[in-house]
Design brief:
Strands 2-3-1-4 form a four-stranded antiparallel β-sheet. The relative contact order is 0.13. The protein contains six helices and six strands, in the order H-H-H-H-E-H-E-E-H-E-E-E. The chain is of the alpha+beta class. A hairpin with a 6-residue loop joins strand 2 and strand 3.
């Protein structure tokens, strides 16, 4: 099962037959294992990973990373406020953090103003939010082990006399 999951994480387009050949299992065994992984919530989704600079959908969007300090809720801790935050459609990722802030949110908006209005009117007004610190993503070089920069370019610096 672990071997099948590893192969799918690397390439979700592999067929059951291809995986069967790689793992010395039958296609039926592979299909059953994949179904079990989907049913038990191990595999949540299959998706294409696109270069944000080439994807027309995300090319003109603005991404921001927001660090949030919150007051944990009685009986729910950080989970209650996290539950309210992740439900916003602008939220792409949400993490509980250690260190100087409690939650880190990655959001996406149509413009700088869109992001700032979300922070000012939605996020910072939530009960329990003590402070926010917003930084904007200027360029993505690598994310989730995917390198977005063209590694074929000659990156040597020129020499001047």
């Amino acid at each position: 099962m672990e071997e099948i999951l590893t192969l799918l994480k690397d390439n979700a387009r592999l067929s059951a037959e291809d995986i069967a050949a790689m793992t010395k299992k039958t296609a039926a065994e592979v299909k059953a294992a994949i179904k079990k992984l989907e049913d038990d919530g191990t595999i949540l989704k299959y998706s294409a990973i696109c270069n944000p600079e080439k994807d027309p959908d995300s090319k003109n969007k603005v991404q921001a990373v927001i660090q949030i300090q919150v007051t944990p809720e009685r009986e729910h801790g950080f989970d209650g406020i996290a539950d309210r935050i992740w439900r916003f459609p602008q939220v792409k990722s949400l993490y509980l953090m250690s260190g100087g802030y409690d939650l880190q949110v990655v959001i996406e908006g149509e413009s700088l103003q869109d992001v700032s209005l979300f922070v000012a009117r939605k996020l910072s007004t939530l009960e329990g939010v003590r402070s926010t610190k917003t930084t904007f993503v200027l360029k993505t070089y690598k994310e989730n082990e995917i390198v977005y920069v063209d590694e074929k370019k000659d990156r040597r610096e020129g020499v001047s006399a």
